[in-house]
Amino acid sequence: MTIENYMPDFVLEKAYDVTVESLQKYHIRTVFVDLDNTLIAWNNPDGTPEMRKWLHDLRDAGIHVVVVSNNKYERVKRAVERFGIDFEAFALKPFTVGIERAIKRFGIKREEAIMIGDQLMTDIRAAKRAGIRSVLVRPLIETDSINTQINRWRERRMMKKITAKYGAFDYKREM
């Protein structure tokens, strides 16, 4: 397990810092985005006005947004259906199951896709395995569901290794 398998291509404050302009600059036409603590706070299914504007801006620019979540189908559907975006539930990240399903289902080219997520151990690792670019963002809120708390413990250990070798991540406001 090399730490390079957990190194994101970009490190940003939040998903909404991924702008239409930056996606166009990197020729990205599809954004895969994690659900809990990335797109929405895990305990706030309604999202924020900022999130809705971000989704609207991407859609208007012709950029396809697909939520890729480890959550159950009903949970993801309930969270995203009001926003009119596609999703893959039960994605099994850090494996590529959900990403691969979305790539096939929508005919996505890997070089035109990016994965945005708040966890190194699931989101970034799955993107690396799938051969797509990745963006690590800070979690929207400090608390996590019980399942995520276990991953956070593993993530802290990996972060220490990354920081020792490369220095701490510098969270930016643009790609």
From TrEMBL:
InterPro entries: HAD-like_sf (IPR036412), HAD-SF_hydro_IA (IPR006439), HAD-SF_hydro_IIIA (IPR006549), HAD_sf (IPR023214), PGPP1/Gep4 (IPR010021). The keyword Hydrolase applies. Gene3D superfamilies: HAD superfamily/HAD-like. This is HAD family hydrolase. Keywords: Hydrolase. It holds the Pfam family Hydrolase. GO terms for molecular function: phosphatidylglycerophosphatase activity. NCBIfam families: HAD-SF-IA-v1, HAD-SF-IIIA, YqeG_hyp_ppase. One of its GO terms (cellular component) is cytoplasm.
